[in-house]
Amino acid sequence: MPFEPTPASIPPPTVLLRQDPPTSWAVNYTALNPLSVLLRAALIYPDKPALIHEDVPRPVYYTYAVWAQRVQNLAYALRAAGIRPGDRVAVVAPNCPLIADAHYGVLAARAILTSINYRLKKHEIHYILEHSGAKIVIVDHEYAHLVRDFKAGPIIVSDDTGREGCAYEDFLASGRLYSDEKGWRGLEMEPDESAGATLCYTSGTTGRPKGVLTTLRGAYLAAVANAYESRLTRESVYLWQVTRVLPMFHAAGWCFPWATVFAFATQVTIRSVNNTHIWNHFLRTGVTHYCGAPTVQIGLINAPEARRLDKTCTAIIAGSAPTAALIAGLEKLNIATTYGPMTRNYPQPAWAALSAEERSKLVARQGHAFATADEVRVVQQREDDEIVDVPLDAKSVGEVVMRGNIVMQEYFSDENATRNAFRGGYFRSGDLAVRHPDGNISILDRSKDIIISGGENASSLAIEQELAAHPDVLEVSVVARPHPRWGERPMAFVVLRPGKDRDGFEERLNAFARERLAGFECPDVTPQVLDGTLAR
Amino acid sequence: MPFEPTPASIPPPTVLLRQDPPTSWAVNYTALNPLSVLLRAALIYPDKPALIHEDVPRPVYYTYAVWAQRVQNLAYALRAAGIRPGDRVAVVAPNCPLIADAHYGVLAARAILTSINYRLKKHEIHYILEHSGAKIVIVDHEYAHLVRDFKAGPIIVSDDTGREGCAYEDFLASGRLYSDEKGWRGLEMEPDESAGATLCYTSGTTGRPKGVLTTLRGAYLAAVANAYESRLTRESVYLWQVTRVLPMFHAAGWCFPWATVFAFATQVTIRSVNNTHIWNHFLRTGVTHYCGAPTVQIGLINAPEARRLDKTCTAIIAGSAPTAALIAGLEKLNIATTYGPMTRNYPQPAWAALSAEERSKLVARQGHAFATADEVRVVQQREDDEIVDVPLDAKSVGEVVMRGNIVMQEYFSDENATRNAFRGGYFRSGDLAVRHPDGNISILDRSKDIIISGGENASSLAIEQELAAHPDVLEVSVVARPHPRWGERPMAFVVLRPGKDRDGFEERLNAFARERLAGFECPDVTPQVLDGTLAR
């Protein structure tokens, strides 16, 4: 397909992609900054495909050289629009080149990227725009109505065509003019590696969204760790999509916008939610890596288009614990799983001798700290506020806590929340877990999701894990239901696998549960014959 | 083979391998330190083989758990011996567990490791001991005579058996006592990531050896980059040896003592120079990775024991440029090459279509900056002392310069040499190179090795590259010889490949040279029928 980037996207004929180090730096010091990985990729692999965006009326394909020029243009345009170091730049966009640009261009302008989930309600998006103090919004045309009331600065709308005449493309072209052909040397490097990189907001939690501020140092070290742990290479093809795998707007795409480029890989962005498009990339573009929370992948593997892949693809799972059933389902499609940051599961040699189900259970553990992360601990708080490790007995429940370079800097503009999250000198995850004798951790639940039934602690996650092993279960979610006698009782919402017999299912599943679970853990089952999945 | 580590080497039954972060650190800050990779490996893979040392009367095998305990013992013993933060600890040892221990134990004592080449002359070793101000020497029994006159502190001799009764093992056992079972928490973490890690001395250069001081930050970032770039994994087996591959004492083993452990790999140390032992490890232990300068590997691939490997092994080449002939020779044995820090060669997709010889020439280029390194530049110095890049024309010769996190901190106790090395804000390598239109660099020579023949600059390396392509040449070294008419003339010392015809070789090689080289580059050839190789 003939594709021509805009004239402003075509770099001048030079390979020098370099910024000038501040004179205050020692010869052996460079502030860690994920921006550096793009300049290096564009220097070494200028002609390699960096971004592929195909399932749209006008597909675009950017090489590393062209993409780096677009990023440079964006940085100049932002500066010309008044953006100063430390300012926030908001982006509301689906998976498309624009948001990939922003993960570099905003940093190149020494600003902080606030990417916002476009599926939030308008008032939530406005709360985030206001709380972050964003000075500019770059928005995809489909979601422009969500930010129409933004008053703090310019709104740049992209029609996602990569064509001149689109406001976003004109904005980039203006940046090229401002650069005056000084190129990268006209953009000062951020001297402080503790400066902010991204400000992404929580959602689906209690209360108002909180802004998670990350640093350049943390983003860089997490990206390098991801590239290493996921075995990303220059042959890798990474997929961004919103309903079946991780979208880029979510939590800085778990640092994969930078990890992929560190590895010189190709990123595929699709705004489509169409299974045919998604599986087309797996089967024909040759996707080798993606990230995703467990629930969204249930839809991926159960799509009618799903086929076993010729070459192993790696799924980086995070967000919540994968069930053994999900891991087995992915393996059938030749999709290997790793369970990602901040912890990951490190398979042990002895596991090779176990049955698939036994192994799946071990693989579903959260494991150990990631490369470049500090040890993840499971702790209880003593009366004097000191935190102590739980015994390594696979039984004593504590809270998962962590610290180190890849932990966030703070909850933005929220000293109370930050102080609370960091009490005891660790980030308190709110996840309840046990620690096995080998130091592995297993998350039982979010602390607010633990079910207290007859005085016993039942883990909704552990119950889900067991029920998901039943062959007729497509998906299962367990919650606490108030109960007059037991205080709380677990209640299971179950999606029947298509084609399975509805009659007697409840009894079959209850019998299955009684075999595998303690009495206080046995749920009241409410089978739901639903279209699609529980996951939204 | 039954192997029992000393009682002091057996860790207490706990997996908690953790130091307390200084209270001054933010929750999202941990000083980068290569020590951390060992504690993580011992936590996650306690029972995995970390060190294998086999070709000695009493072989030893250390798991990660045991090794970490030995390292902890060493740190306590060093502190009890009076070692304070920033002190230097000298090690004179062949490839054996002792020197691997020291790469962690010395850092755990917050001291700086000075590992010394035991093949230097006694007076050179003493110069280094004195200049570094080492406070203690740990020495292998075979080389104890070299440090007998050391007066500044204790000399700990190891008999390399791993057995109680050896002075080094007793030293470790004493460390275990001092730890008082406080374990790792009794050793404070180094708060400053710019603190010294290693102090290794140059040799074979003009004048006195210079001490290259590296930082913890630099060592950590270089180790992570090496693990990534070399694709080290927990299945990897890394070989240390002294005559055919890189020994650990040399330049901190190019950071592979830490890169291997970051990857949870197994290190094999052999003190033997016996080809049978070396090839035994390639063929039976299953070595997957090693480092080496080009010259030492000529002996490796030409050993009678050499066989094609079943599984591809990766050779990380550095020190000088590999000839295309060497790369081809390694490929025949199923040994793939990467050309390592600070630069490496990044193969381009288009190279796949080229002939083996053409591709070898491209692969032999020094390439681009390594992961975690800043761009490597080729520069000339203007009259006003500003440095400017050479044109990317593959012709203009400049000096290779570099800066960034993986550059050394300084020449220890030598302000003049440091200032000179760092003039213009870059480390001046002294290597002369050109830069190709794609930004790749090719080193022509050390600046002092360039041959000026009839006013033309001849590169000894380029001449070596061409002569090495002749099928009868095993090894070649080109130097400048003074000449009454031309000023200098290249002179080649050539080792004839065993079994090749001595008669007429000179003429054959001269004819070959005339076909491939300019007149001023054609050397006077002095074929040498030598046993072994030129490389010592």
Automatic annotation (TrEMBL), chains A, B:
InterPro entries: AMP-bd_C (IPR025110), AMP-bd_C_sf (IPR045851), AMP-binding_CS (IPR020845), AMP-dep_synth/lig_dom (IPR000873), ANL_N_sf (IPR042099). Residues 463-524 form the AMP-binding enzyme C-terminal domain. Gene3D superfamilies: 3.30.300.30, N-terminal domain of ligase-like. SUPFAM superfamilies: Acetyl-CoA synthetase-like. GO terms for molecular function: ligase activity. This is AMP-dependent synthetase and ligase. It comes from the Eukaryota. The keyword Ligase applies. The keyword Iron-sulfur does not apply. Coiled coil: none annotated. GO terms for biological process: fatty acid metabolic process. Keywords: Fatty acid metabolism, Ligase, Lipid metabolism. Residues 41-412 form the AMP-dependent synthetase/ligase domain. Belongs to the ATP-dependent AMP-binding enzyme family. Pfam families: AMP-binding, AMP-binding_C.
